[in-house]
Amino acid sequence: MWPYCGSVYRFLLTPRWWAINLFALVAIPVCVLMGSWQLSRFDDRVDRHQEQREQSSAEARAEARPLRELLPVTQDTVGRTAAVTGRFDTAHPLLVPDRTVEEKRGFYVLSLLRPEGGGKALPVVRGWLPGTADPHRVPAAPEGEVTVTGVLQAPESQHDAGTPGALPEGQLGFVSAAPLVNVVPYGVRDAWITEQHTQRPLRPVPPVAPDNTGLDMKAFQNLGYTAQWFVFAGFVVFMWFRFFRREAETAADAALGLTPDGPEADAGLPCPSAEDAATRSRSPAGSA
After folding, report:
1. Rounded distance, CA 109 to CA 94, Å?
2. Are 237 and 29 in contact (CB under 8 A)?
3. Maximum CA pair distance of the chain?
4. Which end of the chain has less Cβ packing within 10 Å, N or C?
5. Could you read off the pLDDT of 214-265 as tens digits, one per residue?
6. What's the pLDDT tens digit per position in 145-169?
7. What is the mean pLDDT of residues 30-36?
8. pLDDT by residue (tens digit) across 176-209?
9. b/e string for 202-227 if b means 16 or more Cβ within 10 A?
10. Residue of 164, 161, 109 lying closest to 135 (CA atoms)
11. How far apart (Å, rounded) are the C-alpha atoms in residues 212 and 218?
12. Rg of the Cα trace of the chain?
């Protein structure tokens, strides 16, 4: 067997393999880092979900706190029981159509409470009724000064609206200060509470967790992205070894003379021996 002119693995020093190795060295840590980050986000949501369950259980037994102590609304204050004293604005009753409670479609009954001593009004969801939004089915809001307790909620956004587009007068797409400032001639807080002890026939609206918290669909998307990034990292490793093995086998075959059309010096072509060179020099062609 002829000696090799160089190592079978000299192909690793070619520019193409420098690029392949550099890509693998960058891609694998990036994929692992992104997968770990997505997993940490899922873990945070699991922890937050557990905290919300514990908080809900504690809030059911806790006394209501003044609203001013819970503002501004944060992830820590959403879900806490708030109390505020004032008078309902009976001149501007509002309904929020196409809202589902316990898998039944209906509408929220919304009233604005103007606190004593002035200040911005607070939206209060006094309850929910099944069916189509109809103001004639709604009991009137209490008159005079009242103290209202309810679970503090973050403002909704347009994607929470059950009915997109224009609505009849007296109806609102979502509960937030943004649409309310166009309905009433005074300021409105960008937060709301849902009463849990309602007038008949109103039913209480269950409080909801703020967006991007708890075990919602986005949480499981994070878990899916975690698996995806780790699969990408494994795929890069698999393809690198596959290319490496194929290239090494090709170079070894070329070094043994099994692939006459294989790579040249980079793959390690065999060197001619001195005896073979002498034989060629004594051939008729060499004499000529």
Report:
1. 6
2. no
3. 126
4. C
5. 566 677 888 889 999 999 999 999 999 999 998 888 888 877 777 655 444 4
6. 999 999 999 999 888 877 777 889 9
7. 94
8. 999 999 999 999 999 999 998 898 899 999 888 6
9. bbbbebebbeebbbeeebeebbebbe
10. 109
11. 7
12. 36
| Bridge partners of residue 124, in order along the sequence | 111, 193
Q: Are 27 and 270 in contact, with CB atoms under 8 Å apart?
A: no
Distance CA 99, CA 250 (A): 67
Position of tokens 């070619």? 14
Q: What is the per-residue pLDDT for 286?
A: 44
Amino acid identity for residue 279 in this structure: T
User: Would you state the pLDDT for residue 259?
Assistant: 61
Show the 3-state SS of the chain: CCCECCCHHHHHHCHHHHHHHHHHHHHHHHHHHHHHHHHHHHHHHHHHHHHHHHHHHHHHHCCCEEHHHHCCCCCCCCCCEEEEEEEECCCCCEEEEEEEECCEEEEEEEEEEEECCCCCEEEEEEEEEECCCCHHHCCCCCCCEEEEEEEEECCCCHHHCCCCCCCCCCECCCCCHHHHCCCCCCCECCCEEECCCCCCCCECCCCCCCCCCCCCHHHHHHHHHHHHHHHHHHHHHHHHHHHHHHHHHHHHHHHCCCCCCCCCHHHCCECCCHHHHHHHHCCHHHHC
